[in-house]
Structures are given as structure tokens and as C-alpha cells.
Amino acid sequence: MRAPAIKPDSASKASPRLRGELEGGGSFGLKDATTRDLFTMELAKDLRRDLTQMERKLWKILSAKKLGGYKFRRQQAVGEYIVDFVCMEKKLIVELDGGQHAEIRADHDLGRTYFLEKNGYTVLRFWNNEIFESLEGVADTILEALNSLPPLTPPASGRGKESSPHKWGKV
Fold first, then answer.
1. Which terminus of the chain has fewer Cβ atoms in its 10 Å neighbourhood, N or C?
2. Rg of the Cα trace of the chain?
3. pLDDT digits (tens, 9 = 90+) for 47-92
4. In angstroms, rounded to a whole number, what is the distance separating the alpha carbons of residues 105 and 114?
5. What's the confidence (pLDDT) of residue 20?
6. Low-confidence ranges of the chain (pLDDT < 70)
């Protein structure tokens, strides 16, 4: 289950390490980070520790460059949002949605997707049941999207994607 959003005005309830960051300790490496930025980063760390069952299943395919040699990050802060998975090389975001997204979070998700796309990201959304019923189909869809997007920067000479006998890359 996902952790509830942390509100910036509740700094007194933050972990001792985060309170130190807010008081100027600064191990995040951010000089002018706002309180909101620090809470978003702290929440992202918590979410990385507490993946849902479906996020864990998909992460097994996305981690360690297993899907076509592309590197993904999980529970990554992008602006004020925390995305489930992102490939920064292609600016592709993969979001998993459970039942709560259909009813309660639909408007929030629309605004979130608008913000992310406005900032150059492509967003793919999958329902949890799609991961459960057709993980291979989801992986194929993600790989197809990755291969269709142009790279942000051209690859350095002599550094291409590793070849692998598996259709997704290394597994």
C-alpha cells in the first residue's frame, strides 16, 4: 500500500534525518531545495522501499537494464510528482494504476500526465490487472515505445546497446 502524501507544513513530524535536511544539514546535495522538494524526495525513498506486488513484478523486468538495455529508475521524483518508473534516456514514464485511479484519482492523474508531457515526457499507463494477466505484453509495449522514441543525446561512438538472445535483453 502506498504511503500517504507528506505535507510540507508537517516538518516537525518528519524523520530526524529529514528534519536535519530542513535545518540546513544538506546531504541531498541541493542548495536551494524547498521544503516541498525535500519531502518529495523523502517520500520517493519510502515508496522505493515499499513497492506494491505489481510494481515488484514489473521492476524485475525493468531493473538492471534487462529491457532492451535501457536503464530505469523506480519511484523517481519528477517535479512535484513521484512516478513509478522512468527511463531518463528516452524520457519515458511508466505508471501502474490500481482500482483507486479509476474513481478517486482520475482528475489528479490527468493533471499529472499533462504536467509530465508538457515537460517532454511520454507517459504509459497500465492497470495492475494488465501486469498480472500479461506481463510479457506490457513489457513488449514498453520496449516498442522505447525503441520508437528518439534518444535525448546521440550515443558516444562505440557504445551501442548490448545484444542479447532474449527478446527483452538481459534477464
1. N
2. 17
3. 667 789 999 999 999 999 999 999 999 999 998 899 999 999 999 9
4. 14
5. 39
6. 1-36, 39, 43-44, 46-48, 99-104, 154-171
User: Using CA atoms, how far apart are residues 94 and 98, in angstroms rounded to an integer?
Assistant: 13
The residues near 70 (Cβ < 8 Å, ≥ 6 apart) are 87, 89, 90, 146, 169
Grid cell at residue 164: 542479447
Q: Quick one: angle between helices 53-62 and 135-148, nearest 10? A: 50
DSSP 22-36: HTT--TT--SS--HH
Q: What angle do CA 7, 73, 125 make, to 5 degrees?
A: 80
- How many angstroms separate the CA atoms of 156 and 159, rounded? 6
